[in-house]
Structure formats: C-alpha cells, structure tokens
Design brief:
mainly alpha; 95% helix; 0% strand; rod-shaped
Length: 271
C-alpha cells in the first residue's frame, strides 16, 4: 500500500512543478497591472491638482482686488463699529457713574429719611407721653374746677341766702316799724277827726300818705318772700287795710261832701 501511494503522488508533484511558473507569472502580471493603474491614477490626480491649483491661483489673482476692497471696507466698518462700541462703552461708563452717584445720593437720602423717621417717632412718642400727662392734668384740673365750682356755688348759695335773710329781715323790720307808725298816726288822726266837726284835709292826706307808705313796705316784703309762708305779710297787709278802712270810713262822706256841694252850687248858680 505504501508503494501504491508513492506512485500516485508523483504525477501531482510534476503537475505542480509545471504550473507553478505560470502561476507566478500570472500573479506578477496582475500586480504589475495594479501598480500601473495606481501610477496612472496618481499621475491623473497630480495633473488634475496642478490644473486646479493653477486655476485657483488665476482666480485668486483676479479676485484679490475685490477681496482687498472688501477687506478694507470690512475693516472700515469694523473700525466704525469699534468706535461706536467704544462710544457706547464710554457712555455706559458715564451713565454707570451717574447711576452710582444717584444711588449713593438715594442711599444717603434713605439714611437721612430713616434718621428723620426715627426722630419723628421719638417726637411722636414724646408727644404721646406729653399728651397723656396733659390729659391726666386736664382731668385733674377738671375735677379741681368742679370741686371749686361746687364750693363756689355753695358759697354763693350761702351768701345769697344770707343776703336774702338780711334783706328779708330789713324789709320785715321796716314794714313792722312803718305799720306800727301808721297805726299810731291813724289812731291819732282818727281821734282828731272824730273830735272835730269839720274834716281837716291835711290830716286826712297825711293819714293816706302814712298808710300808703306802710302798704308799700308790706307789698315789698310780700314780693320778696317766695319760697316761704307769707303769713306775716298777709297779717301786716290785713292790718293796714283794716286801719285804713276803719279809721277813714267816717271821714270819706265829709271829705267828698265839700267838692259835691261846691260843684252843685256852681252848676245851679250858673243856671
């Protein structure tokens, strides 16, 4: 069997030895084609790149003035914008400074206002305390005034009572004196009139005057007496009227007789 295997492997080895150069040549040809294609592609790329580079250079050469003009214009615009921004920055700095000054002034005003408010609150508290003290003083003064007013009213009442009592006493004594005097004068004048045959006009007139004065004093005393019983005044008034009526009743006819006779004589004498 070993011999059979060796006999079959010999033709294969010979075949490999015969075909191997062709295989190597084929692989070399294929690698050469690849290298040639790569070289051609690289050359074409280089030519294309050179053409594009030249066209770009030419286009850049033609576009360069426009780009320079645009760059100059853009630079001028940027400078203008930068100048504007610088001005705005300066203005903002000035406004910021002004705002800081105003803020500081406002802070100072707020502090001053707080101080003023604190002083006003202190003054308000002091005023409230003063008002409370004054209210207590006013209440005390009111109570004192009421007490003094009550005392004054009591004193005035006592004084008025004393004055009224003194006035009543004076009027009462004067009424009694005048009533007693008129009683005596009435008795005296009545005795004279009863003893004489003809009436005496001066005595009758004096009697009327005295009794009238007595009646005046009694009426004055009666008008003064208000809240007290007027029995004394009634008694004196009744006494005076009794004296006047009792003592002058017999003389009235004689007193009025003379004027009536004279008047009738004149009337009938003239006829």
């Amino acid at each position: 069997m070993v011999l059979c295997h060796n006999q079959s492997s010999r033709p294969r080895l010979e075949l490999v030895l015969i075909t191997k150069p062709f295989t190597i040549a084929k692989s070399g040809v294929s690698h050469g084609q690849r290298i040639l294609g790569l070289a051609i592609w690289l050359w074409m790329e280089m030519v294309t790149s050179l053409i594009h580079f030249q066209t770009d250079i030419i286009s850049m050469f033609f576009k360069l003035p426009f780009r320079i003009f645009n760059a100059i214009q853009t630079q001028s615009m940027m400078e203008m914008r930068l100048h504007d921004m610088q001005l705005r920055h300066d203005n903002l700095l000035c406004e910021n400074k002004k705002l800081r000054d105003e803020l500081q002034v406002a802070i100072d005003d707020v502090r001053d206002s707080e101080m003023v408010i604190t002083e006003v609150e202190d003054d308000y508290e002091n005023s409230l305390s003063r008002i409370r003290k004054m209210e207590t003083e006013v209440h005390a003064l009111k109570s004192e005034n009421l007490r003094l007013l009550q005392q004054r009213r009591q004193i005035e009442t006592m004084t008025t009572t004393n004055k009224k009592d003194g006035t009543l006493d004076g009027i009462w004594s004067r009424a009694i004196v005048q009533s007693m005097f008129s009683t005596g004068m009435s008795v005296l004048v009545g005795a004279i009139i009863w003893g004489s045959e003809d009436p005496c006009m001066p005595l009758v007139m004096a009697l009327f005057i005295v009794v009238g004065m007595s009646l005046t004093s009694v009426v004055q005393f009666f008008s003064v007496v208000k809240n007290k019983p007027g029995s004394d005044a009634y008694a004196l008034l009744s006494l005076n009227w009794f004296i006047l009526g009792a003592l002058t009743s017999p003389t009235l006819a004689r007193v009025f007789q003379l004027p009536a006779v004279r008047l009738s004589n004149r009337l009938f004498g003239a006829v």
